Amino acid sequence: MAPNIYEPLDLPHETRILTILPGNDDEEIVCKLSNMKFASCEAYEALSYCWGRSVARELDLDTEVLIRDVSQPIPDLHSEPAILQEFLELHMRPVAVKDLLGTESEYIYIRFGGPLPSGKIVCNDSELTVGGELFRALRYIRDDETPRRIWIDAVCINQDDLQERAELVKIMGQIYQNASMVRVWLGDTTGEEHKLGQTLRGLQEIFTDCGESSDDKETLAQRKKLFQSHPEWKSINWYALADFFDRAWFERIWVVQELANAKNAIIQIGRYLIHWDAMEKVIALLRHYGGNDHIPHTSGFERANEVRRLRETRQSGRLVSEAELPSKLNALREFKSTMPMDKIYGLLGLMDPAISIEVNYAKSAESLFTDLAVRYLQHGCMDMLYYCSELHQPTSLSLPSWVPDWTRQRWTRPFLMRGLPSHATGDTRFQPSVDPDGQTIRLRGRLLDKILLVNDQAEIPVDQFEPYNRTVHGDAQAHRRYTVKVEQRRMRDALEQSVRLAWPNSDRFTWEKYENMWRTFICNRLIDDSIPTEDYGYAWELFMGMLRWQTANKDEAKSGCYYEEVVPVDTTGLREQQKQTKGEAGLLRYGGAHTRWCYNRRFFISSAERYGWAVDGTKAGDIVAVLYGCPYPFLLRESSDGSYKILGDCYIHGLMDGEALEGAFEEKEFMIS
C-alpha cells in the first residue's frame, strides 16, 4: 500500500472507510479513503472475503479440458454417433485450464481453484495494487450510480504499521457489528450458481412440507426417513451444495467473527445474491434432517454450521467466556489463517473483554499459545491438556506437548468434548508448576499401565476419502452410498481385528474378558450416558453381525455367516437368554454409543490385559497415567531424559471411576515437556 493515502487514526475511536465511486464494469475503479469516527454513526458496509483464491481447491491447472467453439451450434445428443464424433473432432479443442483465465470459459479456471491476478485501482489519487479476489469483488460491488461506503481490511488498515494493525484487530468485532450490512464475497461464478438456486428452492419446499420445528421426540433416523420420502428429495442437486461450501471463505478463521457480529449479511457470488439468514436456515434444517450426509466432502458444510452456531450465540447477546475459549478454539481447528497467531486474534471480537489477550504481531505464535496454556493451567484449568493434539500430525510450530497447537488438525475429539462420564482421579486437585525454561511443567499423578498391543490396522480418519469427482463417482447420492459402504467396511475390519488381538484363539477367551470387551466397545456407557446392563452382550454380537451383513461379500451373503467367529466360543445359549430383552432397540443404542465414544480411536490392550481406546499415533510401550485434577486418563510417551510427552486422552476399562487412586498404582511426579 502507498503510505501517502493513510492519515493517522485516533484509535480506538475511529477507523477508515473506503468510498467506491460509481462506474461501469469496464471503467477504472476510483475510490476515496477517509477517517471516520465511530461516534458519528455514519452508515457503511463491511466486506468479508478471502484474500487468496475463492475456491478451496488446488487442482492441477495444467489439466486439459475440452472447450467448444461457441460459434458452432451443439448437435442434438440423439444424433448419429458419426455426427457427434465429427463435432468433437472439428469444434472441440483441448485447452489447459491455466489458459482459460480471461476467456469466456474462465469459470472453469475458477472452479479449479485458480488464483486471480492482482489489479490496480486509484485511491486518493494514488495508484494502488490490490489482490485479485479483492479487485474482482470491487468490480462487482461498485454501483453504477451512487457511491458505496465500505470497510475493507486490506485497504482500510495500513498493513505496514504493525501497531495500527494490532489496535484495529482489537476492535474488528465492533467494526463488523456497527456495519449496516456485511457483504460476504465468495468469489466469481463457477457456472453452477443457477443449479444452487434451484436446489435451495427445492430444499425450502421439503422443509416447508416436513415442518421446520425441531421435535426432540423424533430420532435422527426418523427425521431422515421423513426427509428422504419427500418427492422433491431426488431432484436435489447435492454437488451444487458441495461446490457452494467448497468456497475458500468457509475455511478462513477471520470470517467467524466477521459474520457472527453482523446485524445483517448478504452472500454475493458474482452478481448472484443470497441472504445469509436464508442460507443459515437451510444449514440448520439440513443438520436437523440429516441431509448434510448427502453433501460430498462435507467439511465446508461443517465449518459453515460452526459459523451459524457462533452467530446464533453472538446475536443472543452472549460472548465467549474465558471458560469456553479452549473448547471454541478446538472446535475451530479446521479454519485456516495465514499467520498462526490469528487462530486466537481472529476470535477477539467474540470474546468477553475480561479475557484480555494482548494483540502483538511481533510476538511468535509459540509464545502466544504457550502463554495462554500457562494462564489456564496456573488457574487450575487442567482441561487445557485435553486439547493437546496428536504429535504425529504435521505442524509448522515448535511447542511443548502440553501446549495445544491450535493450527494442527485433529481427527480424534477429546472425551471431554464428547461428554463421556468419567472421574478417574475423583475429587483430587493439583496446580502444575512451570519450569523456568517455560518448556516443561510438573504434575503429580499415578502410573497405571503400559500399552502392549494397538490395532494399527484401523483407518483413521474413518471418513477420509479422495476428493469427490462427479465424473468418477457419479451423482452425489451414489457417492454417499459408496462412502457409507466404505465406512462400514472400515469399521467392521477395525473391530474384528480388535477382537482377534484380544482372543487370537479360544485359549485366551474367558467370560470376564468377553464382558470387558463388549463394555469397552462402548466405553461402558450407552448413548444416553447410562451404564449398560449385563444383557447388552447380545447387543454387541448383534452389532458386529449387522456390520458383517451390511458389508458382506458374495460368499458371505450366500452362506449367511454373519454372526459366526465374533468370539472364538459358542455363545448361542447366552444369546437365547439375552435376546429376550435386547432386540433392535438395544442394537441401535449400542451402535450409537460406539460411534459417539470410539469414533476415530484405536483399540489397545495393556500389559495388564486391560482394554481401551487410544488416540491415533499411540504405540506399544506408551504409558497410561492419571494426572491429579484431570477426569480422564492420559497416554504419555517417555523421552530419553525421563520426561514425558502428552499424546492425548484415553479410555481404559475398569479405571475410569476412581479405581486409579487405590494404593496398587505408583504415585509419582510427571515432568511433561
Automatic annotation (TrEMBL):
<feature type="domain" description="Heterokaryon incompatibility">
    <location>
        <begin position="119"/>
        <end position="258"/>
    </location>
</feature>
<protein>
    <recommendedName>
        <fullName>Heterokaryon incompatibility domain-containing protein</fullName>
    </recommendedName>
</protein>
<dbReference type="InterPro" id="IPR052895">
    <property type="entry name" value="HetReg/Transcr_Mod"/>
</dbReference>
<dbReference type="InterPro" id="IPR010730">
    <property type="entry name" value="HET"/>
</dbReference>
<dbReference type="Pfam" id="PF26639">
    <property type="entry name" value="Het-6_barrel"/>
</dbReference>
<dbReference type="Pfam" id="PF06985">
    <property type="entry name" value="HET"/>
</dbReference>
